[in-house]
Amino acid sequence: MLSTPEVLRRTGGRPVKSIVFDEATIAARVQALGDEITQAYPDGQLLILGLLKGSFIFLSDLVRTIERPIQVDFLVASSYGDGKVSSGTVRLLYDPETELEGKHILLVEDIIDTGKTLQRLMALLGGRRPKSLAICALLDKQLASEPRPELRFVGFRAPPAFLVGYGLDHAEDFRHLPFIADLE
Ligand code: IMP
Ligand code: MG
Fold it and tell me: What own/partner pairs with CB < 8 Å and gap ≥ 24 does 113-120 have?
């Protein structure tokens, strides 16, 4: 268990098991992803869509490393299926105000677990006739699920643990940690 005073001050006394990705490691990887994205989109309008709430810190760091014109908006999606039978649909609780048609769309997500939510979201957004539609995920747990959405940009392969920090939460706690930790 990691229980240094600096960690405990931030978590209210709850220890974390280990720091999986520290601040410097995250910053270097985010910069590399930003460079990749800048090079991958030589022309056209690029709209970066952050999936709330988990992507908010990653997105705000990522967009500042992209050296081309972009637009930024957000999505709030809700999927049915918490313990009940999934209806196989995803509903947008907040729909981007910006037009998607004819633009390159890059969906930014914090972590891919089964990828089911994103798979459905891709189908929904694909129906709005974007010029291209791709995913950038900070973390990929690589859990087997079919069909799996294609991830064009990935920050890190994630261990099969419950991760918190840098936007990721456990019951809304820990999102503000500047590093990514294994909670249990
Ligand atoms: P999926 O649809 O199964 O890929 O679920 C992905 C979503 O589950 C992410 O957007 C997160 O909100 C949440 N999630 C999955 N794994 C973790 C984790 O280790 N920590 C925090 N949230 C997670
Ligand atoms: Mg999420």
Answer: 113/141, 113/143, 114/143, 114/145, 115/143, 115/145, 115/148, 115/149, 116/79, 116/81, 116/86, 116/145, 117/77, 117/79, 117/90, 118/51, 118/149, 119/147, 119/148, 119/149, 120/79, 120/88, 120/89, 120/90
